Amino acid sequence: MMIRLGEPRSLGVPAPEARLHFDTELQEIGGGPRRRLLMVDDEPAFELSFYCGTCPLLFRRLETATQKLSLESVQDRLAGALEDPDDGGVIEAFGALLPEGEYLPLLLDVEPRLVVPGRQGDYFSGEQVATWGINQFWGLPEYPHTPYYRTFETAVDADAHLYEFVVPMVPPTWNERERVEEYVGVSRSTSRSWDGERSPQRWRSPLWTCVSPPSAWQTTPPRTGA
Fold it and tell me: Which of 7-11, 54-58, 181-185 has the highest mean pLDDT?
């Protein structure tokens, strides 16, 4: 559920300085198919599906995805519920991780549900197989190589369905146990902010979507480390 919609704004740093950005491999003569990548500190972190409108969804964690994007400067502010996307400089802090662009900040109320690939509730072995079938080369469903969270989904029309996912940069098993226990204890009594990495029950999550260029970006919550 959307709590508040912010105003579009310019955020980010020059592309060479951004810790988080998207890239596409160059096509080599005689080589395999190129990949669309989420880069962290210039290392490939996730392989992503191409933004073609007719391609099955894919996010696949790669072996070089070892970096969290924790921001200690806003940890205390995220310990409580945000009333506005601009509270406590959260947007500016996370925006400094991104390449320059025009972004639309949102504040959402979400109930994330942790999913393990291949188990009950897994999109890739469930809804995706029902819609697209299995991967024709491997003869298996796609495998994201990471647990992830499912949040919101709804029918758009008779032939379309919207699914929303929150994908942590590193597995939840890498989270700091003391911090997780702290968040779980507080979440029993109040709504809290969520940056995509903690063990959640019900959270207010700051989110932004990039307005330009639309061909390169998808709606993406901030994903950091606990």
Answer: 7-11
